[in-house]
Each structure stands twice: as structure tokens, then as C-alpha cells.
Structure prediction request, 864 residues.
Amino acid sequence: MNSRHLVVVGGGMVAQRLVEALRDRDTAGAWRITVLAEEPRRPYDRVALTSYFSGRRPEELELGDPALWDDPLVTLVRDDAVTAIDRAARTVTAASGRTYAYDHLVLATGSYAWVPPTEGADLPGVFVYRTVDDVAALRGYVEKLQQDLVRPVRGAVLGGGLLGLEAAGALHALGAQATVLQVGSHLMDTQLDLGGGEALRRLINTIGVGVRVNAMTVRIRPHRRGGVGRLDLADGGRVDADVVVVAAGVRPRDELARAAGLEVGPRGGVVVDDTCVSSDPDVSAVGEVACIQGACIGLVAPGYAMAEVTADRLLGGAAEFPGADTATKLKLSGVDVASFGDAFGRTEGALELVWADPVAGVYKKLVMSDDARTLLGGVLVGDASAYASLRPMLGRELPGDPAAFLLPEGGGGGVPDLELPDDAGVCSCNNVSAGTIRGAVTEHGCTDVGAVKACTKAGTSCGSCLPLVKKLVTTELSKQGITVSNALCEHFALSRAQLYDAVRVSGVRSFTEVVERFGTRAEGRGCDICKPAVASILATTAPAHVLEGERAALQDTNDHVMANLQKDGSYSVVPRIPGGEVTPEGLIAIGEVAKDFGLYTKITGGQRIDLFGARIDQLPVIWQRLVDAGFESGHAYGKSLRTVKSCVGSTWCRFGVQDSVALAVLLELRYRGLRSPHKLKMGVSGCARECAEARGKDVGVIATDKGWNVYVGGNGGFTPKHAVLLAEDLSTEDLIRTIDRFLLYYIRTADRLQRTAPWLEDLEGGVDALRGVVIDDTLGIAADLDAQMAQHVDTYEDEWRATLEDPEKLRRFASFVNAPATPDPSLAYVPERGQARPATADERDAALRGEPVLVAGTTLEVRA
Prediction:
């Protein structure tokens, strides 16, 4: 009865944090709290709003412990917006007519999605992207269009910032075509520089989302059927669209404050001081509605900081707003982007270190002090693995050469180990320092990341700090001599190697059985980490077709359709050509297929022929002809054996000492379809001149006068490694047995996505220990390995041949679910050097306008 009354207007993320923080600290019950929410649901995670499109229910987005709202000192009033504030009477009135008296009032009304004053912005089919109800309406509208249209739904997103890109990803996930229209010169222009924005554009394009920059929409025109039809741009261009998502920015919801006479900023927002108190000492404002230090900040981390400050002040503390952490990380599948600190190098004397690899889609920049020692900011696009380690180091000296954080591993780079000071911030959303995380381990007995999250709240919001949290936990546990968990993911406490053995011994045959038997959450649907890993494990422990039943849903994009997805949304076709050996009839068959379907042809580095530009609906027809000609799947899409490269060997070469072609064909046919943690490549050279580059492969074989030398653990890529000698002068029979055992031992014990080179480096005892296992049988598992490889050879089936014989599997090869016979109209090609290549965005637009397309001075015709 003696408690003072706090009224919180707004039921979003920052309001929830304020209530949680106050109740955690207010052990004496000095305050009772009433939260007046406009929406009909409990506070939920707006940062994860896009995950609603991947099957999550609104209830799964709810924040914190539900028991908070059962606290007798907390009342949550839902679906009842506040309509007026009477500062003199210290009351607020809600839409229901009820009045609430307050001792202190906190405005946490957030912001609203700003819709530019554009003609047609009120048409059906124009949406904003702000609440669960917004995204639910968007999803329902797109799904209805998909039922009505015989072509794909075309979506346009106005705005190329964080929210706009997530909205585009959501449209793409729904099966709609998506184009982002950015008014500025590049994407995420408030977080990224021009170089980073251009790298991001290329990444966005690779996942099937179009981008147009310097694109100002001046009019949204209706379609004759009703709703949206097209967008007119300021430069005279046009974009056809059936649905439009406006993500052009937000504005603070300060209308209550204005009506109550509170001071607002020049660009809106309730003006507050560093204690988050407004011009009325009985009223505070937190989150996006607050204009603090001269700005309204549309990020959750500063809002959480304001909530913590307000809770402290209500209990008599002296906390002040520490300043805004504007670090951001894009949450879009397949696109890795982060920005932090002074990303634009505006600090006087700042130096910029930049590393870019346009081919790999990577752009990295660090902004350093004038002596190149203190980190001021950074931009990471395409590879943001260093973000978690770098962001806490803002304003501190980096150890060693800063370039090490930019360069790829193997090129003098790789994220160095950092001993973060205790006061270094790790989780900006929840203001958790490195020292707090270490204390959770050493003082509170937390022994895994989940326990640390529960204890400190680190990583419970946006999740971008979790890699660093895990690293800190692992380091502290190791210091105490405690065994560190190497769990595959949150759904499995076992490592991949442990899970492999468990699945093999138990004999389970489906992902559901694996989760129920060995998972930590029997009700879980798995994640992008464990689903492909389990699919790979089942492929060797319980062989079945990659698209059989439940297994189809576990596969990565390429395995899902047994073809490699290309940058323009088409697919490549790679028939197996064992050892690079092919008959004239085979070459003619491949050539006829390429000619009839207009495919770009390229001889690969693995001595095969790649056919590019196939639509998804063409894949079965193409493969039927290739299968009829005697070809089979080359598994270019899978984490499996790709090729066995060979020279011509003793059959033709005057230097050859063994028949390398025959051995390469034998090996490729033996190991075809063998699923593994990573792709596998092999090479066979007929003499020491090494024309097949065998020592750059996972397994390399080089002929000698006495037989064969076998090398293992060679890799190309960012971290090239030469293979090391495993055994010398082996007979063909001994060679095959040695390779059998090596491959299966690697498959059983490697981590997910770990290539043979790092696996061999991590293997205790190195190549000597490996030699003991596969040759001397020191573990006593040789017979088991031999039997498993024999089973693989005996049960192999060509995945494409089996698919062509199964009408149910063939149903997935359609451009659109609701219009299977309709080809994808978004694919366009330009003839060049006698073949077809994908048209660029500019070439496509020019063709649509009827203008000639020039390439190297030659007029070309864009074709679909």
C-alpha cells in the first residue's frame, strides 16, 4: 500500500526492459508498475520480426520470463492506448476511458514507420514493416496473390536500410520477387561507406534480391485489377510491383508529449537529459521516442541503456546515459554485415585500413587513430566474423598488426585471440561487460553459454555477441581445468563426431528420431547448423536418397534441388566425367543439350563440363537426356566427392610410370556420392612431374616405379595447404584400402564444414596418429571402416536417375508452386563470345525500355 505508482506508456522492448530492471532491483517493493500497451499482445522481439516468416509464431517472439507479468506489483494492460496526459493532475487517460494516476510517468511509445507523401501510398498492397500485425498482413496479402496470379508475385521495398533489407529478405522467403529501391547512392548508407554498400549490393543480388540505387519513387500506380501495379521513379524509370513495403525510416511517436506541452526536439522526440527525465521532472522518456543528447536513436541497445538508467534513478541511484552504441549487424540469411564506431572515419586524423575481395564478396575496413593503434570503428561486409571481437575494443589499442583482422586466414590474417579487459563491453543490448561474463563462470558456477545467458542476459537480444560470449566462457572454463563443451548447436549437446557415433551405433534413420534420442530439445525443429550436419551423418550411416521424405527438408539450397544455384537465380548442371575421361558420343550429347537449352558451357578445373543457365523447371528434362546418354550426377552441389583429376598417365605420356586415368576413374566411381563434412577433391598423377596437382587435393596420389604414394590433407581456397605424405609405394589394392579408411575416419571425426587440412592439423598426434589408425589399426576400427565403405559402394544410386523415376520428387522442380508450367520471367541473358551470360541490371532495364544494349561496342539483344 505504501508503493509509489509508475505508469509506463507503451508495451515494446524498451518498456519490457524497464519493468524487468526495476523489479530485479526493487527488492523492497517501492514501486508498483502499470504498463499501458497499444498492441493486444505482450512485449515481443521486434529485432527478430523477420523470423515470423520462417514459421515462428508471435508467442515465440515474446520477451523475457512470462512470470514477470504475474508479479503482483506489475500490471500489463493490453490493447488500450493512452490518449491524453494531464500533467497537472498527474494522470493519463486510455482509449477505454479509464484513468490512471501516476507518481512518475515513463513514455516508451517508440516510433512509427514513416511513409513519404507519395501519390498512391494509400493503395491496397502498400505495407509498412513495424509490428507483428504488419508482417502478418503482408504475408497474407502475398499468399493471396500467389493463389490468384499465374506468375510470381513482384515486390518492391522502398528503403535500403536495415529494415528494408530484412523486409526484402522476408518477401524473398515468401517466394516473391523482391527489388530494393534505395534513394541514396548505396545500401545502408547511414552505416556503410560506398565500398561497403557496393559489396552489400552484390551479396544481396546473390540471394535473389534486386537492388536499384538513386531510385526515388514519385508515384505508386494502381493495377486494373485493383491494388498496386507499378512504381514511377524520378529518373523516368518504372518498376512493376504487386506489393510494396515502405521502409523509408521511422519517426518518434511524440504526439502525447506535444499535446501535454512537453519539450520536443527540432526533429521530434521528447527532449530528455542524461538521466532520461523530460522538461517535467515527473515524466521520463526512453527508447526511440526520447531525444537524448540531441538525437532520437532507432536502435534497441541505446533504448535498453535508457531503461537501465531510469530504473536506477527511480530507486535513488545516480546513473546517467553513457552515450549511444550505434553498432549494427544485419540479420539476413546468407548476408553477413556489421558496422560499428566511427565507420566513416570522421575523427580528425583517422586512418582507414581497407581490404576487399569482390570475387568472394568481402569488404572490410577498420578506422584507426592517426598512429594506427587505437580502434575507432569499422565496416565488415561478407565476412563479419571479427565483429564480436572488434566491437568491444572500440577506443582501445589493438594488439599487433590491425591488418590481421582484415586479411583472410592463410593470407596472413585471421581473428587474433584478444584478452579483453574486464570493463570492455561485450553485449551492448544488455550492457554486459567481459568481466561480468567471466564472473558468471568463476563466481556463479555457469558452465555453458546457456547458463551465462540466463545469468547475465548477454546474447538474449540480437544475439550478435554470442560468438564472443562463447569464446570468453570457453577460455574461463579452460583456465579452471573444466572440460569445455563442443556441442554441435543448441539442439545437440554432442559434438558432430560424438553425434555421428551415436547415430551410427543406435541405427536411427531420421532427423526426428535423432532429435528425440540425442537432442537437448525434443520439440525443436533444428537449425541451419544441425539439420545439414545430421543429413550428412545419415547419408553414410543410413543411406537413402537425398530428397527422400524428411531428408529433403534438411538439405542446403544446392542439395535441395541437386544443382548449384547461380547469381541470377538459374542453376548449373554438372554431369560426372570420371577422371576427365569422356567419349566423343558423350561430348556430343553434352553439346546438344547445351545447344538446345541455350546453356553456357565451361570446362572446369576438375576436368568436367559445367552447363550454366538452366531454369529449375528445366533440370529434370536436361538430366533425362544426360542420363539417357549414360551420364550421372557429378555431385557438384553436395558436401561430397567432387572430382578426381588426372593426367593421361602411362597410357599416352612418355614420362608416365602408372595408368593414372584408370586409377582416377576407379577412385571416382568408388567414392561418388560419399557425403562428408566438406567437399572432397582428389588428384592422380602418373609420375613425379605432378601434372594433376595431386598435392593440392584432399587425397593426392602420385605414381612411382613401385606403385603409388598417397598424400592427404591438401586444400586450396583461402587457406591453401600442401598435402602430406601418408604412405609410399602402395599396391593399388593397399592404396584403395588406405584411402577408404582415411575418408571414413575423417567423416566420422571431423567437425561440421571442417576440411581435411584443418582436421589433420587438429588431430592429436597429426599424420603419425592418422597413419596408425588407417594402416596399423591402432584403434581397432579398421574392419568397421572397411565394411562401411563396402556398404557405401554397394548401395550407391545416382540421385538424378532415381529422381526422374519418382513423380513425387519431380514435383519440387517447378518455377512456382501455383504455376508449375510458368518459366521464371526474371531470368535474362546476353550473348557474348558466342554464348549466353546473365544480363546485368542495367542491360535488363535498357532492354525493357526498348533501348539497344552495347557490350564492347557491339549491339546485343537481351533474351529471356
About this structure: The CA atoms of residues 51 and 57 lie 9 Å apart. The chain has 24 helices and 41 strands.
